[in-house]
Amino acid sequence: MKRTATALAVVAVTSLVLTSCGRDEAGGGGEEQSKAISDGAATGTIEVWAMGTEGDELQAFSADFEEANPDAEVKVTAIPWDAAHNKIANAIASGETPDVSLIGTTWMGEFAEAGGLMPTPEGLVDEADFFPGAWGSTEVGGTSYGVPWYVETRALYYRKDMAEKSGWSEAPQTWEELHQFATDMKEKGGAEYGLSLQPGQTGSWQTVLPFAWSNGAAVTNEAGTEYTIDSPEMVEALDYYTSYFDEGLSPARMLDPGELESGFADGSYGAFISGPWHTGLVEEAGLSTDEYAVAPLPGKDSGPGTSFVGGGDLAVFSDSDNTDAAWKYVQWLSEPETQQGFYDTVGDLPAVQAAWDTGELAEDPQLQVFGTQLETTEAPPAVPTWEQVAATIDTLVEQASKGATKPEDAVKEMQSKASSIGTGL
Amino acid sequence: MTATATEPRQGRPAKDSRPTKSRHVDPTRRGQAVAAWILALPFCALFLVFTAGPVLASLGLSFTDLRSTDVRNPLGVEFVGLTNYADLVSDPLFRKVTLNTLLYLVLGVPLTMAVALGVAVALNRITRLRAFFRVGYYLPVVTSIVAVSVVWKFLLRDNGGLVNVMLAWVGINGPGYLDSTTTALPTLVVMAVWRNFGSLMVIFLAGLQTIPKEISEAAETDGASAWATFRYITLPMLRPTLLFGAVITSIGYLQFFEEAFVMTKGGPLDSTKSVTFFTYEQFGFGNYAYASAAAYLLFLAIVLLTLFQFRLLREKD
């Protein structure tokens, strides 16, 4: 009796779960094309999710949009970054999504493939207005599923005063020069470590892949259907990367939060690679713009190298009840003036190139370096399994950096793990 | 329950002439039973919907190939039998996290039990300031793990951490506790013991207080040493409490997660990743079926270990 009841419960629950998911037949990779948005003002409520500073500031910032569209109301919900990925994944699974959300660029593949995102409507924005690397992050299997909102990219930070002391009046342009630069900073400039690189662990792929891209390596094939990590170019890049740890030019352990900035300020680290947010942190740590400089990443044989482009995209969900107004809101956020205004409010670098030509951004020499770098960038592949493969790469970079695995073996292992995971497309 | 309660106990002859299988049930008792069920119903409903349902569903899911990208298009989901379980067994990362979890168990359980018992016995003896110490030792249990982790990380820092600074005073060059694959896991265990022994200590203290004072007083009069009293009186009388303690502590260490998640993110080189951590990570990657299978393997391990512990500690009765 008891056993029958349990068995019945299993069957009932399982079938309930399966059928309740089965109601929705629209999902599964968006083949359908979104129709073009209508003319006229937006109406109705637009529910928006955003993370981080964007989430905090967007509500007040959207007042201008509401003024121009009196019948529309924007309702922003702030979500912490930590919880965002799972919250959006669950919302898509249950069909309880908002209308618009900020999406981390590396999540696009997964959410688009799950059928949660609408393809970008024809004529909403002009692709050519955006940085190509940023636009690439919205494309999954050849279809665009959103609009780039803001971008970030990585460049080389270095101590100008220490570089001069070691005989460098300009930033290094090539791999060879970078290596020499780091050695000189250590030997002549008085730095404990010439260049601080991340020895593996979460997110280190963002520093490693630029070296691979600069060397002509590609993580996936053109269509994104197969991982192509194992290549001589990739091995060479990882070999070059790990040489900094082998030779004591980079600290081989993970730095604690805040250690990088204070170590850069007191001269322990001569240089490091990071994004635009570090200008503020470095200056908070006590350095003036005379003491440090930012330069584009060195390339293999000539600069600039290919850097990582990340940031956030804006996407409209398939389950949105107000898609027309939602896309109009996205369109408004993509206008150069809106992007400049948002930079003034939050400090996010605009994804629209025209927004860099005038105003505060055009006058800040350090930010202009990031603007220059943004023209030579690549985004990680927008495939559903990228997060998992990235975690694998992080672990293997760590092994190679610690000397536990040879770079060529680490790259082989990355390939075999990535192949068994598959791209999911 | 109510039907058997009115029956005479088995093995004893019925003394009165009442038939042993009485159909008569006291009406007030039936009323109480109905009331009890009505009161219990909300819990039962919530339990079925939010606990039993998902638990059973995840068992079902563990036999499919469901990924996050299939959720809206479940027609593509296939029944794959035991494939996920077979994949887990041959997955080097899963083997590593299983080994790590066993290490957590083997290091953590005896240490936590010993510290909790030692402190409980000491607290049972002192009469002054008992409440103060009891609160003091219990405090880490209720402190936020994130706050605790930040402080510990600061203390354990390689460069300028208080622990290494103090070791340097006596001429010892301390390691980067959380940066090395050999020291990270034991360091987390030490922290977990410090954080968790308090709740076990409270249970042991309660157990100790059920032991009648007369017995140990009699032993003392007979000239037994403190150790002998502890060994031959306290320990045997505490056996049920110890069993309970061992079971819940083991279950806790088999589900080791928070400390590793906050302090090391499973690193360096996956050396502190536990099975629960692995499951969490796989859910994050969208591998729902694979993660469910891992969760069920852990569940199975917990059931087996608990049964084993009950047998081991009961047999000597």
Chain-wise SSE layout:
The complex is a heterodimer of chains A (425) and B (317).
Chain A: H1 2-22, E1 44-51, H2 52-61, H3 63-68, E2 72-79, H4 81-94, E3 100-104, H5 108-113, H6 132-136, E4 139-140, E5 143-144, E6 147-153, E7 155-159, H7 160-165, H8 175-187, H9 205-214, H10 232-246, H11 259-265, E8 271-274, H12 278-284, E9 292-295, E10 307-316, H13 323-333, H14 336-346, E11 349-350, H15 360-363, H16 365-374, E12 377-378, H17 386-401, H18 407-421
Parallel strand pairs in A: 1-2, 1-3, 10-12
Antiparallel strand pairs in A: 3-10, 4-5, 6-10, 6-11, 7-8, 7-9
Helix pairs in contact in A: 9-10, 10-18, 17-18
Chain B: H1 2-5, H2 27-61, H3 83-90, H4 92-125, H5 130-142, H6 145-156, H7 162-169, H8 184-209, H9 213-221, H10 226-237, H11 239-254, H12 258-263, H13 275-284, H14 288-314
Helix pairs in contact in B: 4-8, 4-11, 5-8, 8-11, 9-10, 11-14, 13-14
Characteristics:
heterodimer; A: alpha/beta; 7-stranded mixed sheet; 18 helices; disordered N terminus; B: 317 residues
Give an overview of the whole structure.
The complex is a heterodimer of chains A (425) and B (317). Chain A is α/β, with parallel strands linked by helices and 425 residues long. Chain A has helices at 2-22, 52-61, 63-68, 81-94, 108-113, 132-136, 160-165, 175-187, 205-214, 232-246, 259-265, 278-284, 323-333, 336-346, 360-363, 365-374, 386-401, 407-421, and strands spanning 44-51, 72-79, 100-104, 139-140, 143-144, 147-153, 155-159, 271-274, 292-295, 307-316, 349-350, 377-378. Chain A contains 18 helices and 12 strands. In chain A, strand 4 (139-140) and strand 5 (143-144) form a beta hairpin. Chain B is built from 14 helices and no strands. Chain B has helices at 2-5, 27-61, 83-90, 92-125, 130-142, 145-156, 162-169, 184-209, 213-221, 226-237, 239-254, 258-263, 275-284, 288-314. Chains A and B meet through helix 1, helix 4 and helix 17 of A and helix 2 and helix 13 of B.
